[in-house]
Amino acid sequence: MSKGTEKKQILCIGAGYVGGPTMAMIAARCPQHDVTVVDINAQRIKAWQSDDLPIYEPKLLEVVKEARNRNLFFSTEIDENIKKADIIFVSVNTPTKTFGVGAGKAADLQYWEKTARNIVQASESDKIIVEKSTLPVRTARAMERILNANDKGLHFEVLSNPEFLAEGTAIQDLEQPDRVLIGSQETESGIAARQQLVDIYANWVSKEKIVTSNIWSAELSKLVANAFLAQRISSINSISALCEKTEANVSEVARAIGMDSRIGAKFLNASVGFGGSCFKKDILNLVYIAENYGLTEVARYWESVIAINEYQEQRFVRQMIKVMFNTVAGKKITLFGFAFKKDTGDTRESPAIYIAKRLLEEKAQVVISDPKALVNAKNDLAEFGSEVIFEEDPYKASKDAHAIAVLTEWDSFTTLDYDKIYRSMVKPAFVFDGRNILDHDALFKIGFSVFRIGRPSLRHF
Ligand SMILES: NC(=O)c1ccc[n+]([C@@H]2O[C@H](COP(=O)([O-])OP(=O)(O)OC[C@H]3O[C@@H](n4cnc5c(N)ncnc54)[C@H](O)[C@@H]3O)[C@@H](O)[C@H]2O)c1
Q: For ligand 1, is residue 315 a contact (CB within 6 Å)?
């Protein structure tokens, strides 16, 4: 058998937003290998076995169905599957630590370490362990120490293969990645293990896009990629505040600077702020690592990316309250969108959470409309009980409202009948477009007072 075609038992521990889609793609593109995804969360595994998947991603169900029960399996039998595996991807959550040393900044590696110990305890043969979770640089050293301190004479080779997919476009990103990064120790066994992973990806990713590096570069590159992406959003958002004061238009500024090939046009959309489970957590992690190495200026530089994001969310709500005559108490305010971005149901760190909470503190009646995120939104706002209304239909959600705030850039919000919506609302009717996706001139003509990011407002008073 030639390289890469020999049947392998591939296991992934952690069936979340990364583990599920990534393994579904490997199974679909590598029918010669068996791929199993395990999790401690039985409900999640059950959902992966059904057509009602635990996460929403365009085209995910099709890819899962192509391989499920052929060479893609979901299971809660963790130990048994560890025993069988040749290669184990670890894709458990690595949230920000909420307690003890590094609380609020460092990565909480308890799930990660438990998994490592689980692997040692259940293994009966040598294995390749792949870090898929995003981890602090030099975690592989700790991983190797835990794994190779076994008394069974087993050898574990640790690789770093960070995941760069973006939620909402996960399948497209996995199918045609900009690059796949695989880091290893630069020893003979490290390079041999790395080659096994290269051979798996080479089933559908072209060789030039499979980048290999030393393991520390791979670990650090993931944190740096997220920091750079978030930094672009904070950079344009900081300029949006200046545009609002100077009658410049942030979209025109973004277009003009984006045409400079050194800058590039992507990730320059001003908005209410970035969310998602990764950007903030990974920057905080970078800040914590820099501080640990005594690099205070580096830490402060990256911390400012988060500070601008919080500033953007805060000034959005402050403006809402101010223009609605300095009070929103008792006013119905409809949030169009709760997911942190379009085409996902994920609400982790969504700016909508902060904005909804601030409005509720101000005693507004908050109504939330989102095509995919209402289940998560209900959990995020559980403490407010029946004070918050969840209504998928945007027409019903905005009936009798004083204001609409667009917080997620769902395409469906751009094609609504805003004439009809305006007629059903309390006057004066406000639109706060936190994503700059609506036709503001048309809304203004209908009668709305329109507030947008990085452009002067259009007011009827
Ligand atoms: N979500 C993204 O877009 C994204 C993108 C790139 C990288 N990442 C990184 O990937 C990692 C996973 O992220 P996610 O969004 O998939 O998280 P998630 O919370 O959706 O999934 C993690 C899963 O791991 C399971 N788990 C935890 N401990 C376990 C254990 N000991 N044994 C078995 N299962 C266990 C949890 O039950 C959960 O289902 C994180 O490090 C994250 O930073 C996420």
A: no
pTM of the model: 0.95
- Whichever domain contains 238, its CATH number is 3.40.50.720
Answer yes or no: is the C-beta of 15 below 6 A from any ligand 1 atom.
yes
Domain boundary among 162, 187, 205: 205
Ligand 1 atom 13 nearest Cα: 93
Same domain, 28 and 106: yes
Q: How many CA atoms within 13 Å lie on the side-chain side of 23?
A: 30
Give the domain extent around 105. 9-205
Using alpha carbons only, give the angle 6, 7, 12 rounded to the nearest 5 degrees.
Answer: 130
Ligand 1 neighbour 137 (Cβ under 6 A)? no
135 C-alpha to center of ligand 1: Å? 11
Handedness of CA 173, 178, 182, 183 (dihedral sign): negative
For the question of residue 30 being annotated catalytic, the response is no
Taking the C-alpha atoms of residue 360 and residue 382, their distance in angstroms, rounded to an integer, is 12
The reply to whether 382 falls in a domain is yes
**Ligand 1: centre distance to CA 271 (Å):** 27
What are 371's two structure tokens?
Answer: 């095509």
Tens digits of per-residue pLDDT, 2-47? 456 789 999 999 999 999 999 999 999 999 999 999 999 999 999 9
- Structural domain count, the chain: 2
Domain shared by 309 and 418, yes or no: yes
How many Å apart are CA 457 and CA 98, to the nearest integer?
40
**Token pair 């602090």: residue:** 136
